[in-house]
Amino acid sequence: MSWQEYLDTHQDRFEQELLDFVRIPSVSARPEHMRDVERAARWVADRLAAAGIENAEILPTTGHPAVYGDWLHAGTDKPSVLIYGHFDVQPAEPLDLWTSPPFDPEIRDGRLWGRGASDDKGGMFIPILAAEALMAETGRLPVNVKFLFEGQEEIGSPDMPPVIAAQRNRLACDMIFSADGLQWSAQEAQIVMGLKGLMGVEITVDGAATDQHSGLHGGGINNPLMALSQLLASMKDAQTGRITIDGFYDDVIDLSDEDRAEIARVPFDEAGYLAETGAPASFGEEGYSVRERLWARPTLEINGLTGGYQGAGTKTVLPARASAKITCRLVADQDPERIAALIAAHVEAHLPPGVTAQVDRLAGDADPFLVPRGHNATRAAEEVLAETYGAAPYITRVGGSIPIMTLFLRELGVHGVMFGFSVGDENLHAPDEFFRLENFRRGQTAYCRLLEKLGG
Ligand SMILES: [Zn+2]
């Protein structure tokens, strides 16, 4: 039998097993489900062992556990591949909006419905099944494979950085594939090449010691709210959308003609985009398409602005203090630390007279991420997706960040490739989450092909 025949023959059992897996309510956000996350970890470790993976074990953390397993007998001339996913799920509420209960999953219309079916239990089960099929049919795997599955992705992986740092040698690898990822649509594949980073600051401008009467003191002292507005306005050109902070774009990797052609190839309906947001027109950095700005150009946005009187009617006050929260979405190779320093320098240089200002960092930094062109793992994934979907995958980027990818890059020095088979319309994080069984099967074939290609 070939591995494809093995997959075809055992699909019913795989679906029943996925139903069992989804039945475990491994909601990482809720303390009352702590034991369920542990049960899911045990399920995963046992399932890895049943597939023929060795050293399958639960890795304790200070919070929810992770699971590791490996098979390292392909030979030192073969690459070592790390496969990642997560077995925790989002809370299922509001429960009354589910057609069938979130933790009593069922199969309807070629889809498996239940919390975590798509994100990421169905996704992370796929490479385990691919490994089982290859092991069953050939007695081995074409490459050295390490699995790392976590139980806290949906709460931001708070305890994973020390675990990955501590296990750095054991997790050392040549390539990383994340089984937690989306394809472009049910029938179209994508390769995500870039993710944006994040950096935030709060700027506080102080004037008088307390709020003052604008009739008594207006014209005598400066108004922190006006000064802050002028300061903020000096950070971005109102017409071109260019950020005017000195050095802000210094480390940005410019789009090549090839990058721009790849982005232009991805369908984009600007009218639909505007209708979806409700904005009267698009706006952003001059010289770039909307999608280029969304995916590959950095941003600076005011997220909140506070000061003075906000109630009904008029209050003739000169506020003593005004503040603004700002975040920047960063692109490779911008560094959150450096951008924060540039903003602080801009504030110092452009602060209107008669007030003082303070710049404080906000939590939640993320480094930008961009897979280098010609990257070996990405090329293999592209070829496999083209074979499996019958057309070349779209080369895309994401405006948000995925912390585990930057964590892997920092700790293991490897750019991960998203190789997951969910689709964005599958109600991830919402009621009636489902996973298309067609893509559950397609993913198994794709992972077998990928491991074979990497070993060949
Ligand atoms: Zn996920």
TrEMBL record:
Gene3D superfamilies: 3.30.70.360, Zn peptidases. The keyword Zinc does not apply. InterPro entries: Cyt/Met_Dipeptidase (IPR051458), Peptidase_M20 (IPR002933), Peptidase_M20_dimer (IPR011650), Profilin_CS (IPR027310). Its EC number is 3.4.13.-. GO terms for molecular function: dipeptidase activity. It is an enzyme of class 3 (hydrolase). It holds the Pfam family Peptidase_M20. It comes from the Bacteria. Residues 194-354 form the Peptidase M20 dimerisation domain. Keywords: Dipeptidase, Hydrolase, Metal-binding, Protease. This is Dipeptidase.
